Each structure stands twice: as structure tokens, then as C-alpha cells.
Amino acid sequence: MTTVTALPPDSLARAKPLVEPALKEAIAGLHPSLALMSGYAFGWCAADGTPVCAPGGKALRSAVALLVAQAAGGAARDAIPVAVAVELVHCFSLMHDDIMDGDELRRARPTVWKAFGSGPAVLAGDAMMALALQAAARTGVETACDELADSLTSLTRGQAEDLAFEARPFTGPAAVSVDEYLAMARDKTGALLGCAAAMGAAVAGAGGATVAAYRRFGNELGLAFQAVDDILGIWGDPRSTGKPVGGDLARGKKTLPVLEALTSGSAASTRLARLVQRPLTGGDLRRAATLVERAGGRRQTRHHARTHHQRALHALKSATPRPGPGDDLAELAAYLLHRTA
Amino acid sequence: MTTVTALPPDSLARAKPLVEPALKEAIAGLHPSLALMSGYAFGWCAADGTPVCAPGGKALRSAVALLVAQAAGGAARDAIPVAVAVELVHCFSLMHDDIMDGDELRRARPTVWKAFGSGPAVLAGDAMMALALQAAARTGVETACDELADSLTSLTRGQAEDLAFEARPFTGPAAVSVDEYLAMARDKTGALLGCAAAMGAAVAGAGGATVAAYRRFGNELGLAFQAVDDILGIWGDPRSTGKPVGGDLARGKKTLPVLEALTSGSAASTRLARLVQRPLTGGDLRRAATLVERAGGRRQTRHHARTHHQRALHALKSATPRPGPGDDLAELAAYLLHRTA
């Protein structure tokens, strides 16, 4: 249960071909203009509809739903509608977040709003949300509507809080605290992974306590994932991450490494506090990354990642998973902690 | 059952105070920034949060849900979660449609995106969708998730088709046909009213055939409503409608009166076809309205409104409603046909 690897585990590679046909079938039922934008977002086609094979995301939420269903005593195929629902919600939230954040690139391609316009991208996101709901209704999970509603409410609250952070200072009494950041990340990243895990368990007929344990597993996994994401957002290799070097710093994002560094009280922290008062470019970006590291921001963020990873494993253990898929879930968690992309 | 009136019926006035407290409670649970935008959209506050009492819509979907619940043998209060869900979906779709259409005014106030920015308005719409889903999960209707998913899928398909119409010509082989327009309106306006009626019946414990009859009632009511809306969009009094004179013509919208006029083959139709090739302003707007009327566009649209109104009444009759609320539903339908605002 303690495999350490930077390579994507087999479970991710296995999830995609199981879920993709059902995803494609759902999307084929949309209005042609919406199906085109959705197919583009999943990396299945170019903006003009030409079939391509662009990187379309990790299928992480799918893998969690399928593996949890198996770990809870069910079959992976029974969780396909769950996987479809959570992948659609994830894709919908990326589409809309990219509009709000003004992000022009995702996985090294123009974002949907950049390629098709903001209005159409809003609508395509809405349509994927509607499809997600249809898929949820077909899971056979009695609480599917509730589960999806709760994760959507959390997603929007997390994004609202993330947007509100932009208007708040890095330092001083109104500064964003580490705890506030973690609460935001729990909503924005943890909730949907928790939903994927909980619905995967529910579809396998698990009882309330087991469903809750898997939800905690997904939730904590999401927090570990986000902490690692924040590290990669500053120190990641652009060739692996598909994102620009120091991208989060350049955009003035209040991420965990920066917030931790600013609370360390060290000399590096004081210098960093002065530096982040203005937009960062070129040499300042490198300087800021060095100061965040010297002030312990990277180490502390790594610590958060490990803590939530440990909590995820603890929740997983308490759900008493079947050994094979249980090991796969632990391997997936280890990969998310050690990944470089 | 054949009351003809241009005054809003009591049932609309009664629905609002029943549903609004539950709506307000749901919205109060949102992130403060999202609650503000939602409250603004419903006409409860100004953009800075100051309480106001601005016109916040007709509560038409609420009234239909509550009255159908009573007509099907239940109590109005049991349908409050249904009413909350459909009002939230309606408000969400207006918020997002206003972004896509670039509309700057709604009910004589700046639209949400105009007052708060497009990104925040996208998110506020998403949050209302999530709340709608939470409300639907609480209706006690087993098929609530399905019902809402289907109406959302229809809404997005209708809006996609409406946007696609903009890029198509008024005349020639690629012109938008009247049948295509009606299919779009069934998706964009009929589906949600059908959902409100169907869920109102389901919450009262009605059987499948009765639920389906009420869904047809709502659906046809929506089509009649849209036809009247199209007439008011050209010939309505701006003081009553809150919209500019000839607004739909000025925006080059392909509405039912124009499409009908263009297919009449009359001399007025030919002149209209030439006129609408370019954007209309000032005197051309008045001329276009006159030509649409002369070519029979207004009369034909009135005919569509009456046809769908009749079909709605027929569906209502087949559901064998309880007399009191059944009469109220017929009165509501008559009002929608004869309204001037």
C-alpha cells in the first residue's frame, strides 16, 4: 500500500477507455454546436471538429469512482454513469472557471472560451452540467441528486471564495489565511473527488458509514492533490505541466506556498511580502520563487500534502476496501502526491 | 374556465409570498458575493446590497407548480420546493442568456453581468443551478433529478438553437423555418413550464398519465406564452414590457411574427425581406413592424398563441383537475394569452 511513483498508475489508464465511450455517447446527444465545444474540451477534436487526440485530463475522478465501486464490493462498470457525471461536472467547472479567470490556455491549447467565444462557452458548460445531472439520475443511486447538488454548491462556493481572495491583500489584518485557503480548496477540489468516491461506494450498495468514509477519502485526496498542484504551479516543469513557469506567481494567485511563506516571520518572508505588492515578471518571478522556498513555503505545502494524503489513507482503511482495488486506490493516492505533471 | 383578462390573476399574486421566503432562505446559504448577485437578480436588493423592491418577474413557474399540485389533489405548500427549483432554474437561465445575448437591461435595471461583471454572473448562475438541484432533491419527487435534468438539457438546446438562428439568413434555402422556431421555443420556454407542472403533479402523488398531461399543459402554455412574447417584443408598450420599442426587430431577432411574415408570399413580405437584410434603426423599425403586420405576421403569431393555448386547455382537461385550482390554471392561461406586459 506504500508504492511511491511519479508514473501514472494503471488504474488511470484503465479508467479512460471504460468511461470515454459513455461520455461520448452522452455528448453526442447535445446540440451540434455544444457537442463540438464539449468534444474540444475533452481533447477529442480541434475547434473545427477535426478528430484529434489531444491530452484531455487525467480521468482522475473517473478512476476514483470506478475503483471505489470495486473496493466496496461492486463492479467497475456499474460506476460508469457516476464516472460520466463527475467528469462532466469537472469539465463544466473548468470551462466556466477559465472564463472567470481569463485563462487562455489549458493543456497547451486555447481554452474553450478563447476558441469559441465566452457566450458559447458559458452555454456549453451549462449543457455539460445538465448532462451530468442526467447521468447522475441514471446511476441508480437514490441520493445521486443530493450528492451532485452538494458537490456543485461546494464547487461554486470554492470558486467564489477563490475570486474573493484576488481582491484581498497578501499581508496585514485582511490577508487571506492558510485556514481560509484550505477551506476554499476543500470546496473547490475536495468536494467533487469526495462525491466521486461516495457515489462509487453507493452504487456498489455500501452502507452510510462506508459511503461517508469513502467521501472523506476523496475529500482528503483532493486537498493533497491541490497542495501538490500549488507546488507544481510555481516549481513545475512547463514541459510536464503544460503551464507557464511560475504561472501562479505571475498571476498574483494566493496559493498555499506563498501564504505559508508569508506567515513564517523569517527575513525571506519580509522580503517576499514587499515583492508581492506589485505584479511579478521576469527576474522578480525567480526571486519570488526563491524567497517562497527560503521562507519554508514549499516545505510547509509539502507537509500539508502529506498530512491530507495520510488522512486519505486513514479514511480508506476505515472503509475496509477489498484488497486489489484498495491497493489501486492507495497507489493512485501515492501517485498524486509524487506526480510531476 | 374562459375568463378573458389583461390583469394578472390572483394566483400569481398568491404564489409569490408563499415561495419567496423559501427562495430567500436557499439563497442566504450561498457565498455572500453570490447571494448578493442572486438577490439583485430577484429584485430584492440594489447592486450594493441595499434592500429594494424592484420588479422581480411574474412568479409564473411558481404559480403553475403550486396550482397544479392543488389541482392534482395535493396542497400548495407541498410544491414549494418544486416552485423554488423552477424559479432558480429560470433565474439562472436568464442570467446566463443575458451574458450570451449581450443584453444590458432586464426589467428596466442593468442585467447581472452588466452590474457585476461577466465572470461573477457566470458563477452566480451556476450557484443558482446548484441550489435548484438541492431544492429538487428535497421535493420528495422520485424523478426530480430526471425532470430537472431533462428541462435543463432542453433549455440549453433551445438556447444553442436560438444562438445558431442568429447566424442564419431570414430568407433563402438556409432560412430559419417556422417549424424550427417552434421547436426552439418548445425547448427554451415550454420545457421548464412543463417541468414545473409535471413536478407539481408528482408532488401531489399523481400517476404517470396525469403527470404527463400536466407536463403537456405546461409545455403548450410555454409555447403560447412565447408567441405572445414575440408580439409584445415588436408591438408592446415599453412602459408595460420594460423593453425598448421594436427591440426584437432592432436586434435582428428571428421571431415568429417576422418568420411568418416572410413566408406569406405577399408584396409586404417581399419588401420586408429586403428591409431585414441590414440592421434596422429609427424609421426602418416602424416600417418593418408595419410590413410584418401587413404580411400577416402578427395575425399568424396570434393564431399560434391561440392554438397552443387551446392545446394547453385540452391537456388540462384530460388531467381532470379539481375545479377550483383547475379554474385558476385556466384563468392563468387566459391571462398569458391576453397580457400586455
UniProtKB/TrEMBL annotation, chains A, B:
Pfam families: polyprenyl_synt. The keyword tRNA-binding does not apply. InterPro entries: Isoprenoid_synthase_dom_sf (IPR008949), Polyprenyl_synt (IPR000092). Coiled coil: none annotated. It comes from the Bacteria. Belongs to the FPP/GGPP synthase family. This is Polyprenyl synthetase family protein. It comes from Streptomyces formicae. The lineage of its organism: Bacteria, Bacillati, Actinomycetota, Actinomycetes, Kitasatosporales.
